[in-house]
C-alpha cells in the first residue's frame, strides 16, 4: 500500500510538473508575444477585473473541491450535491457581476471596464460546470489527464489572444483569451472524466461537506481580497499604465515559485491526506517537501533576480523596463510564498481549517495596513511594504503549523537557511561580475552561469547533503 502510494505520488509529481510547466511555458511564451503588441494600460484594465473574478470563483467553489478530495469515504451523493451547488452559485454570481459592472467601472472611472468585466465574468459559470470533474482527477492522482487538458486550453486560448492582439483588438484580446481558456478546459474535463450527476441534491451531504468547506470558503475569501487588494488600490490610486507595470512584475515574480509550489501542492494534498492519522510520518514528509521546495525556489528566484533587467528588455521590449525595479523588490517577499502555501496545505490535510481562516485574516489585516501606509510614497514603496509583511506573516503561518504537527518557524527556517545564504552570496557575486553594458543574450547567459556556479559551490561549503538531496531526487524520478 505504501509503495503503491509512493509510486502514485512520484508519477503524480512528474505529470503535475509536466502539466504546470508545459502550460506555463506555452502561456508565458504567448503572453510575451501578446505583451509586445499591447500597451501596459491594457494589462492594467484586465488587472482591475481580477479581484472580482477571483472572489467570484471562490464563492462558486466554496471549499467543496478540497472537501471532496479530503473525504476518504465520499459517495456519488456527495459528488452530485457539490455539482448542483456549484452550478447554482456560478449562475447567480455571474448575474450579480453583470448588474454590478457599471458600478465597478464608475469606481475606476473607466467606462470601458463595464463591458470588459461582463465578458470576462463568463469564466465564472464555465468554471462551475467542471469543479467536480477536476476534483475527481485530483482524487485519483491523475495529473496526466489534467496535463493534456491544460495544454490544450493554453494553446487554443493563447493562439486566439495572439491573433486578436495582432489585429489590433487591444484589451479584448486578453478578455477573449481568458474566456476561451475556461471554455476549452470545461469541455475537455467533461470528455476526459466519464462522470455525470446520478443522485439528487442531499441536504445531509451538503451540511457534512460544508462543515469543512465553509471554513475554507471564509479563508479563501480573505485570501482573494488580500492577494488582489493591492491591484485594487493601485488601480484607484495610480494610472492604468502603472498598474500594468505592477501587474506584469507581479506575474513574472510569481511565475516560477507558484508553478513549483502548485506541482508539489497538488500532489502532496491527496497523498498527505492518506497520512493524516500518523502525525510523525506526516511531519517527517512535510519537512522533506519544505527542504526540496526551498532548495529549488531560492535557486530559481535568485536566477530571476539577476537576469530581471536584460530579460524584460529582451522579451518585452524597453517599454516594459519600469517594471524591473518592482519585480526585483517583489521577489524578496515572494520567496516566502511557497512556504505559506505548504503550511496552509498541511493544515487543511489535518482538518484544521479554522486555523486557515485565522491566518488569512491576520495576514490580510497586516498587508492592508502596510499598503495604506506605503501608497502615499509611491508604487515602489507598496512593493517594499509587501516584501516586509511577507516576512512578518511567516511567523503567523508557522505558529499554527506547530500546533497541528509540531513543526515550528525555527524548524522550517533551519531547513531553508542554507539555500537562503547560497542565493544571497550568488546574487552578490553575479552583481559584482556582470557589468551594465553588453549584449543582452550574453548578459543573461553569463549571469545564469555565474549564479548557478556560486549557488552550488556555496551549498557544498555549507552542507554537501543539500546537493545529495537534489541528486537523489532526480535519480529516484529517473528510476521510476
Describe what this molecule looks like in 3D.
- This protein has 480 residues and is an all-alpha fold.
- It is built from 19 helices and no strands.
- The protein has helices at residues 2-37, 40-61, 64-70, 76-108, 112-120, 123-128, 131-139, 143-166, 171-192, 203-237, 240-273, 279-316, 323-334, 337-349, 353-374, 379-405, 409-433, 440-462, 465-479.
- The longest helix is centred in the middle third of the chain and has 38 residues, at 279-316.
- The two termini are 17 Å apart.
Quick summary of this structure?
It is built from 19 helices and no strands. It has 480 residues and is an all-alpha fold. The chain folds into 2 domains: 1-230, no CATH class; 238-480, no CATH class.
Features:
480 residues; mainly alpha; 86% helix; globular
Structural class: mainly alpha
Overall number of structural domains: 2
Number of extended strands: 0
On the 0-100 scale, what is the average pLDDT? 80
User: What is the helix fraction of residues, given as a range?
Assistant: over 70%
- Report the order of strands and helices: HHHHHHHHHHHHHHHHHHH
Overall, the morphology is globular
Give the termini separation. 17 Å
Task: Chart the SSEs and their pairings.
Elements lengths: L1 H36 L2 H22 L2 H7 L5 H33 L3 H9 L2 H6 L2 H9 L3 H24 L4 H22 L10 H35 L2 H34 L5 H38 L6 H12 L2 H13 L3 H22 L4 H27 L3 H25 L6 H23 L2 H15 L1
Helix pairs in contact: 1-8, 1-11, 2-4, 2-5, 2-10, 2-11, 3-7, 3-10, 4-5, 4-10, 8-9, 10-15, 11-12, 11-13, 11-14, 12-13, 12-14, 12-17, 12-18, 13-16, 14-16, 15-16, 17-18
Amino acid at each position: 500500500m505504501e509503495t503503491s502510494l509512493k509510486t502514485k505520488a512520484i508519477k503524480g509529481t512528474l505529470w503535475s510538473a509536466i502539466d504546470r510547466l508545459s502550460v506555463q511555458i506555452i502561456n508565458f511564451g504567448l503572453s510575451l508575444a501578446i505583451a509586445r503588441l499591447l500597451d501596459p494600460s491594457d494589462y492594467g484594465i484586465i488587472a482591475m477585473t481580477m479581484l472580482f473574478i477571483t472572489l467570484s470563483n471562490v464563492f462558486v467553489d466554496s471549499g467543496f473541491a478540497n472537501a471532496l478530495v479530503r473525504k476518504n469515504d465520499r459517495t456519488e451523493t456527495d459528488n452530485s450535491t457539490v455539482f448542483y451547488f456549484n452550478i447554482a452559485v456560478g449562475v447567480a454570481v455571474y448575474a450579480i457581476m453583470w448588474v454590478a459592472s457599471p458600478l465597478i467601472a464608475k469606481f475606476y472611472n473607466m467606462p470601458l471596464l463595464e463591458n470588459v468585466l461582463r465578458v470576462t465574468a463568463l469564466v465564472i459559470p464555465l468554471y462551475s460546470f467542471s469543479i467536480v470533474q477536476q476534483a475527481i482527477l485530483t482524487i485519483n492522482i491523475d495529473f496526466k489527464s489534467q496535463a493534456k487538458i491544460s495544454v490544450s486550453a493554453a494553446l487554443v486560448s493563447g493562439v486566439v489572444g495572439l491573433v486578436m492582439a495582432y489585429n489590433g483588438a487591444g484589451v479584448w484580446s486578453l478578455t477573449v483569451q481568458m474566456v476561451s481558456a475556461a471554455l476549452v478546459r470545461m469541455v475537455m474535463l467533461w470528455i476526459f472524466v466519464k462522470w455525470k450527476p446520478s443522485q439528487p441534491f442531499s441536504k445531509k451531504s451538503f451540511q457534512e461537506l460544508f462543515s469543512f468547506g465553509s471554513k475554507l470558503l471564509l479563508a479563501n475569501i480573505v485570501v482573494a481580497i488580500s492577494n488582489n487588494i493591492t491591484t485594487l488600490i493601485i488601480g484607484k490610486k495610480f494610472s492604468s499604465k502603472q498598474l500594468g507595470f505592477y501587474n506584469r512584475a507581479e506575474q513574472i515574480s510569481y511565475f516560477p515559485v507558484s508553478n513549483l509550489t502548485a506541482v508539489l501542492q497538488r500532489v502532496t494534498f491527496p497523498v498527505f491526506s492518506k497520512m493524516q492519522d500518523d502525525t510523525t510520518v506526516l511531519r517527517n514528509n512535510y519537512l522533506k517537501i519544505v527542504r526540496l521546495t526551498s532548495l529549488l525556489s531560492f535557486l530559481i528566484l535568485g536566477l530571476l533576480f539577476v537576469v530581471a533587467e536584460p530579460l524584460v528588455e529582451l522579451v518585452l521590449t524597453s517599454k516594459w523596463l519600469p517594471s524591473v525595479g518592482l519585480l526585483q523588490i517583489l521577489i524578496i517577499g515572494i520567496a516566502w510564498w511557497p512556504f505559506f502555501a505548504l503550511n496552509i496545505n498541511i493544515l487543511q490535510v489535518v482538518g484544521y481549517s479554522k486555523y486557515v481562516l485565522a491566518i488569512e485574516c491576520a495576514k490580510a489585516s497586516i498587508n492592508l495596513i502596510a499598503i495604506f501606509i506605503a501608497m502615499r510614497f509611491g508604487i515602489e514603496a507598496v512593493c517594499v511594504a509587501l516584501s516586509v509583511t511577507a516576512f512578518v506573516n511567516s511567523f503567523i503561518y508557522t505558529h499554527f503549523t506547530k500546533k497541528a504537527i509540531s513543526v515550528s518557524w525555527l524548524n522550517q527556517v533551519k531547513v531553508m537557511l542554507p539555500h537562503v545564504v547560497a542565493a544571497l552570496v550568488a546574487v552578490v557575486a553575479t552583481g559584482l561580475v556582470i557589468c551594465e553594458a553588453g549584449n543582452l543574450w550574453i548578459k543573461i547567459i553569463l549571469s545564469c552561469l555565474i549564479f548557478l556556479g556560486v549557488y552550488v559551490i556555496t551549498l557544498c561549503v555549507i552542507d554537501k547533503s543539500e546537493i545529495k538531496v537534489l541528486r537523489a531526487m532526480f535519480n529516484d524520478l529517473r528510476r521510476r
